[in-house]
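Fold tokens
===========
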Amino acid sequence: MSLLSSTWRVRRKIGDLVRDCRGVAAVEFAMIVPIMLVLFFGTVELSSAIAIKRKLTLVAHATSDLTSQSLDSVKNTDMQNVFAASGAIMLPYSLTPLSATVSEIFIDKNKIAKIQWSQSATVAMVSGSPQATLKASPHNRGDTVTVPEGLLIPNTWLIWSEVSYTYTPTVGYVVKTDLSMEDEAYTRPRHSTCVDYPPPANAGSSCTPVS
């Protein structure tokens, strides 16, 4: 009899527990919050990464395009201005990880592309405005490089820009590591056959194709 009574009490308590809906909302909220946070922060971080990648593409095109618009030569100050003006496209995102390289490429009669000259820089905010600091380029004069087949026109020059940026997630809830981004662009000199850098010693001289 005692066993039956105990069994009945257990069944009754289980039934009461099943019918008791107190705290259900809290339990459901606790279960869904992690999923909601992943979706929210994931959307924020992914959107920022996509926006920065698009801006990086624009920086690459602007750097190449501004250099190609030079009349016949550029100086160090010209290059600094080009890098700084192009880097401003990244705003309002941080400029600190932005690095860029501009090179002129000569394509010889055999469609071999070689570096004519190359200059790199880092861009950062200084006193509220973008400033570029020139640094050594990873390319040397005469280095052979790969150029898209459609641009390989014998005895012509190209302005080639390369940009790189490291995206650090704002929150780091979903994307927990930095993302390295790169892009490049090609343009042809607009107002002359080629662009000298640094300016030649003689005003009448022009680019000497690299051998």
User: Anything to note?
Assistant: The first strand starts at residue 98 and ends at 107. Residues 24-68 form the longest helix (45 residues).
